[in-house]
């Protein structure tokens, strides 16, 4: 398969496949409390079988061109090596309407390095330039400041706040909706070329 470098520290973006179930489960176990603060799939991933089930659902979505799932690995000195520390996905991909939604998660060992921002740029570039999508969306709990900061770094505009719409961990979270349009994605920011 492919591996896209995500920076000088040996991080890579790769497809997250059903055969990664054991590695995916180990990753979820390392970051369960941290990831689970805002991300619900960790509740369902409790065994290698349930990890495989989630990965299989995304393989089915990919086959239908309705969603895609990628892992972020660090320490990739050899092909296929490294440690899975998070991921990005097209949670929704609707080629007919030209609208998709990107999402992300990381365990603590993957934070603070810009990995998600770089990985999401890869996904948005592909969506706009290869697939001709018109709109890329991003939904995040308002309290998830790391996630909303990624949306800002991607040049997205906050368009909506759905008050107390997402119950998670006994708390009802406001959800912020962010988006960037194809013509905005390639536009220079503040007179400088987009990095």
UniProtKB/TrEMBL annotation:
<dbReference type="InterPro" id="IPR000182">
    <property type="entry name" value="GNAT_dom"/>
</dbReference>
<dbReference type="InterPro" id="IPR051908">
    <property type="entry name" value="Ribosomal_N-acetyltransferase"/>
</dbReference>
<dbReference type="InterPro" id="IPR016181">
    <property type="entry name" value="Acyl_CoA_acyltransferase"/>
</dbReference>
<dbReference type="Pfam" id="PF13302">
    <property type="entry name" value="Acetyltransf_3"/>
</dbReference>
<feature type="domain" description="N-acetyltransferase">
    <location>
        <begin position="11"/>
        <end position="178"/>
    </location>
</feature>
<protein>
    <submittedName>
        <fullName>GNAT family protein</fullName>
        <ecNumber>2.-.-.-</ecNumber>
    </submittedName>
</protein>
<keyword id="KW-0808">Transferase</keyword>
<dbReference type="GO" id="GO:0016740">
    <property type="term" value="F:transferase activity"/>
</dbReference>
């Amino acid at each position: 398969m492919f591996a896209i470098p995500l920076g000088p520290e040996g991080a890579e973006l790769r497809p997250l496949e059903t055969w990664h179930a054991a590695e995916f489960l180990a990753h979820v176990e390392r970051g369960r409390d941290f990831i689970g603060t805002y991300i619900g799939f960790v509740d369902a991933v409790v065994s290698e079988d349930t990890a495989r089930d989630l990965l299989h659902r995304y393989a089915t979505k990919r086959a239908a061109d309705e969603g895609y799932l990628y892992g972020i690995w660090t320490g990739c000195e050899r092909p296929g090596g490294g440690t899975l520390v998070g991921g990005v996905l097209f949670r929704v991909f609707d080629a007919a309407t030209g609208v998709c939604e990107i999402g992300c998660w990381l365990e603590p060992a993957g934070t603070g390095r810009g990995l998600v921002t770089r990985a999401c740029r890869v996904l948005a570039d592909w969506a706009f330039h290869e697939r001709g999508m018109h709109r890329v969306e991003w939904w995040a709990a308002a309290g998830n400041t790391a996630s909303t900061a990624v949306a800002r770094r991607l040049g997205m505009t906050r368009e909506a706040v759905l008050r107390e719409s997402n119950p998670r961990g006994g708390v009802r979270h406001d959800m912020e909706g962010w988006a960037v349009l194809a013509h905005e994605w390639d536009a220079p920011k503040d007179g400088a070329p987009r990095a």
